[in-house]
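User: Could you write out the 3D structure of this protein bound to S-adenosylmethionine? I've included everything you need below.
Assistant: Certainly. Input first, then the structure.
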Amino acid sequence: MHRRAFLPLIVTPALAQYEESKGDVPWVPTPDEVMNTLFRMAGVTPRDTVYDLGSGDGRVLIYAAKHFGARGVGIEIEGHRVLEARAAAKKAGVSRRVKFIEQDLFKADIRPATVVFMYLYTAVMAKLKPKLMSDLKPGTRVVAYQFNGLRDWKPDRVDNTHPYPAYLWTIPTRQA
Ligand SMILES: C[S@@+](CC[C@H](N)C(=O)[O-])C[C@H]1O[C@@H](n2cnc3c(N)ncnc32)[C@H](O)[C@@H]1O
């Protein structure tokens, strides 16, 4: 998360909001220009289905639908964010291309994804890695901003043009 945005989560009344959160990571949105970089790195096209694990207010999938023509599925544990995301998708005119599910991302069926987007803490990504490896099809692109919890899995690309790194990995072919 950007320093400006992250600090208040620790020291101001926003902390109370964080403590009440059901999730493993507080809500901090990804900037548009970072989404653009990540989707370009992943080569997203209208043939893709992007899963945003921890989809917040839906902006990532709305951006992917509007600017790259992709379909999207957002998994979000906070019910009020899911409602916000659905309303934003409707307002943006993309509600036929994106859907938002209120669910714990560790329990979600992510198998249909062709691209997975994450803006999650390192430890959460590390815990998620076995699921990514077992559930996603070989060739699925995985992108993340700022945190790299997949450290023993070398990224295909790292972009350093934003305040924090943007990462791209590709699910490898499974060994027989
Ligand atoms: C840093 S925000 C990223 C939001 C959005 N993906 C973006 O990049 O703008 C992380 C989101 O993950 C959600 N979250 C945290 N733990 C979760 C969990 N176990 N299952 C589903 N969502 C979770 C939070 O509620 C929050 O909305």
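The CA atoms of residues 125 and 149 lie 5 Å apart.
User: Perfect, thank you.
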